[in-house]
């Protein structure tokens, strides 16, 4: 399994998000604390971020080497700042290619997506509607195929959270052994799922209202400086909230909503 993380809020350097926290993504590459499947994430890493004043398409940096082996990235990360970042370290699923194009984040030119998990390759192939005009996956990695299914739903006009939830529930229904923690952003909101792996979030500079709303157990959280959504907490500080399995998180710069997927 992989570990992934996303930040939405005030502008921060990539290093302050990924390298500096004591249990941030860099540390999680070699010593994850909550990963349920696998022990180390050494098959590649990637970061994507938005620079809306320059262009709408997010920038990406992906390599098929361990994050700790790329000192040049660590150097760049100290001076690249963004208000929306999504990054992942990879432990390739058995049988999947180890190559840059199989490494998250994937993009359709507007969104960034990471998949922590596995799914039978026939499932996303079956969910791609029609072959003509279907998005062409970057790689034959299961995660790249899942990303293509999400891109197709979005291109057909679905809202981000609806597209992600629909694809996860459909894929989970077709493969009972699938693990489907997706993390997706469009630069102004973060959408994440839990389906077989861990996920936590923390709001900085805001207040957790802790309101249980109705039977679907939504939790509303007001955001101040920003929100971090991560496979596991990047430090032992206060404020981290763990999701249950089979949940959907939708965060923007105003609040975080967590609901049940099924
Ligand atoms: N199945 C994906 C891959 O091979 C994700 C793996 C993971 O979550 N470790 O990259």
TrEMBL record:
Its EC number is 3.5.1.118. Keywords: Glutamine amidotransferase, Hydrolase. Gene3D superfamilies: Glutamine Phosphoribosylpyrophosphate, subunit 1, domain 1. One of its GO terms (molecular function) is hydrolase activity, acting on carbon-nitrogen (but not peptide) bonds, in linear amides. Pathway: Amino-acid biosynthesis; ergothioneine biosynthesis. CDD domains: YafJ. Pfam families: GATase_6. InterPro entries: EgtC, EgtC_Actinobacteria, Gamma-glu_amide_hydrolase, Ntn_hydrolases_N. GO terms for biological process: ergothioneine biosynthetic process. It comes from the Bacteria. It catalyses: gamma-L-glutamyl-hercynylcysteine S-oxide + H2O = S-(hercyn-2-yl)-L-cysteine S-oxide + L-glutamate. It is an enzyme of class 3 (hydrolase). NCBIfam families: ergothioneine biosynthesis protein EgtC. Catalyzes the hydrolysis of the gamma-glutamyl amide bond of hercynyl-gamma-L-glutamyl-L-cysteine sulfoxide to produce hercynylcysteine sulfoxide, a step in the biosynthesis pathway of ergothioneine. This is Gamma-glutamyl-hercynylcysteine sulfoxide hydrolase.
């Amino acid at each position: 399994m992989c570990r992934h993380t996303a930040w939405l809020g005030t502008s921060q350097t990539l290093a302050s998000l990924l390298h500096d926290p004591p249990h941030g993504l860099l540390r999680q590459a070699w010593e994850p604390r909550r990963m349920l499947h696998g022990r180390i994430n050494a098959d590649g890493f990637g970061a994507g971020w938005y620079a809306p004043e320059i262009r709408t398409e997010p920038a990406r940096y992906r390599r098929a080497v361990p994050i700790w082996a790329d000192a040049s990235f660590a150097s760049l990360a100290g001076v690249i700042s963004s208000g929306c970042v999504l990054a992942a370290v990879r432990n390739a699923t058995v049988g999947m290619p180890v190559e840059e194009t199989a490494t998250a984040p994937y993009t359709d030119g507007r969104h960034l997506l990471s998949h922590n998990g596995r799914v039978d390759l026939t499932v996303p192939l079956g969910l791609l509607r029609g072959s003509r005009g279907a998005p062409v996956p970057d790689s034959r990695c299961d995660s790249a195929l899942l990303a293509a299914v999400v891109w197709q739903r979005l291109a057909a006009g679905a809202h981000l959270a609806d597209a992600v939830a629909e694809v996860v529930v459909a894929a989970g229904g077709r493969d009972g052994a699938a693990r489907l923690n997706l993390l997706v952003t469009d630069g102004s909101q973060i959408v994440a799922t839990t389906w077989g792996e861990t996920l936590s979030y923390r709001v900085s500079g805001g207040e957790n209202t802790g309101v249980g709303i109705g039977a679907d157990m939504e939790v509303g959280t007001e955001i101040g400086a920003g929100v971090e959504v991560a496979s596991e907490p990047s430090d032992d500080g206060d404020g981290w909230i763990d999701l249950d399995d089979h949940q959907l998180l939708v965060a923007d710069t105003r609040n975080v909503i967590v609901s049940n997927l099924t």
